[in-house]
Amino acid sequence: MRSRWMYILEIVLAIVLFWMGLFGVSFLFIDGPRSAAITLGILGVFFYLMNTMGYVMISPSHPVSVVGSVVGAIGVIMLIIQIFGWNIWIIGNPIVALIYFAIAMCTKAVIALFLPLEEVA
Fold first, then answer.
1. Which of 68, 104, 105, 119 is the most buried (most CB within 10 A)?
2. What is the pTM of this model?
3. 44 with 104: CB under 8 angstroms?
4. Tens digits of per-residue pLDDT, 34-46?
5. Torsional class of 24: left (φ above 0), alpha (ψ -120 to 50), beta (otherwise)
6. How many helices (H) and strands (E) in the chain?
7. Which residue from 99, 52, 55, 51 is spatially nearest to 75, judged by alpha carbons?
8. How many CB atoms lie within 10 A of CB 106?
9. Which is nearest to 44 in space by CA: 54, 53, 55?
10. Do the Cβ atoms of 82 and 97 come closer than 8 Å?
C-alpha cells in the first residue's frame, strides 16, 4: 500500500484524457485524439517510472512485472508512432492508441490497487 492516491489519480487522468480525446474537447494543447494519445502516453510513462519501476527492479521475473514490461514496451512504440505521426497499419490510428493507453493505465492502476506486488512477491 505505497501510494494509493497516485493510482487513483492515474485512473482519473486516464478517463478524463480519454474522454477529452474521444469527444474532441479542446483544453490547452489537447484538441483531438492524437494530442490526447500523446499526452496520455507521456503520462503513462511518467506513472510507470514513478510507481511501477521499483516493483520491476525488485522482482523482474514475476508475471505481473513481465506483463507490465511488455505492455509498457508496446506503449512506448505506440507513443513514438503517434509523436512522429506515422501511419502504420492499425497502431498508427490515434483513436486505437488512445484506447490502448487508457486501458493499459487503468488496468495497471487497478491491479496495483488490489494486488500490490510487494505482497505477492
1. 105
2. 0.80
3. yes
4. 888 989 889 888 8
5. left
6. 6, 0
7. 99
8. 18
9. 53
10. yes
